[in-house]
Amino acid sequence: MRRSILALVSGAVVALAGCGNDGGSAAGGSGGSNGFDELYDQGLTKYVDEFNPDGEPTFDEENGITTFRFAVPDDPAAEPRGPLCLRGTEYTVDTREGTSDELVIFLQGGGACWDTFCSAFEKTNFLRDNSDGILDPAFEANPVADWDVVYLPYCDGSLFAGDVDRVLPGSLAGGGGEPSMGYQRGLQNLTAALDIASETFPNPSRILLTGVSGGAFGTIVAMPLVRDYYPATKILVFNDSGVGVAKEGDAEFIEETLLAGWNASSLIPASCPDCTSNGHITRYIDWQLAADDNFTMSALSYSADQVIAGIFLMTPAEDFTASLLAETQRTTTMFGDRYKRFIPVDTAHTAILREGPAVDTEAGFRIGGLETEIDGVTVLEWFTAMLDGTEVWNDLVDPSLLE
User: Fold this and answer.
1) What is the pLDDT of residue 240?
2) Predicted confidence (pLDDT) per residue in 166-179, tens digit
3) Residue 242 near residue 215, CB atoms below 8 Å
4) Helix and strand totals (H; E) in the chain
5) Distance (Å, rounded) from C-alpha 113 to C-alpha 156?
6) What is the pLDDT of residues 2-42, one digit of tens each?
7) Residue 331 phi/psi, 5° resolution?
8) Torsional sign, CA 304, 306, 308, 311
9) Domain extent listing, the chain
10) CA 24, CA 30: separation in Å to the nearest integer?
11) CATH architecture of 2-402
């Protein structure tokens, strides 16, 4: 039963689918301080300009989408290694040109894999199949309907951080199976996509870096790398259901099971030993906000997200809620002008890829939507206010959680 639920969860999420001073504003900003050189020196940018798509991109005239494909080599393990999905299939990147000079960089979600657990989407997916919510150019209330889009599929189970080939358990999302070789090349996939983004859209006036679930966690890795490509561009980060909360007091899960297992430890600054020491990666978000004053972040999470808490973290809902409130409160206290929360009471997961309210699914979990509200403010209104820099973009936590 657990195996079938996990399979449906990962598939449904993909289908629908975070020590300084305050500063900046949601609407403006030019230039600013970028202190990410330490990460670049540690290897975050080592794959920049290393990979080329295979042949000419294809253009879907009906949907206005261009698809770039990365060839699968005869020997996937041969050097130089390149973009690849979890079980050795091709990686793709989609772009869609809008009518504005602003850019959405969207990281899709879909599970995670580590040495003892694997429930993740294993093959590439496409923008044409995921154009709902804020990715729907025909959605009249969508404030980014006319923005350019770069769509990053998620298919390697490492939250866009991995840099390792290793044997992994058979995927629960794929119906089980024996352990087999896994290619967790999230950093290559992320970098190859940002190469395409910078070539296709070299001078956006603003960037919305966003993602859901595993892709939301991925925005934490991606933020400093996006800054390398766009040194002076205002970046707005909208993190939907991957805000950096993990297992309170269990640093080993983050540092050994995930980061070391994915060969991604170097993506955390060596100068910040406390970035993961409490069992979360939220202090790494604090470090980023202190290092770069030209970006803002929205952190959205349902209070008892059963997909993150129950399936992937395997932690009681009340523990997840307590950590969520405490970790995000610290960050918004430190960076109140540039980091704000939207935390409604619910067990749902993700919101920005559905136009409606939260609903139950046949698999027994809930998916959120843009009509979710706190004190009369919907996710859509809050999202729009972040882009517009209005006072509606405020720190919103359901009052019952603060009693």
Assistant:
1) 98
2) 999 987 765 567 89
3) yes
4) 9, 18
5) 8
6) 223 333 333 433 333 333 333 333 333 334 567 999 999 99
7) -70, -40
8) positive
9) 2-402
10) 9
11) 3-Layer(aba) Sandwich (3.40)
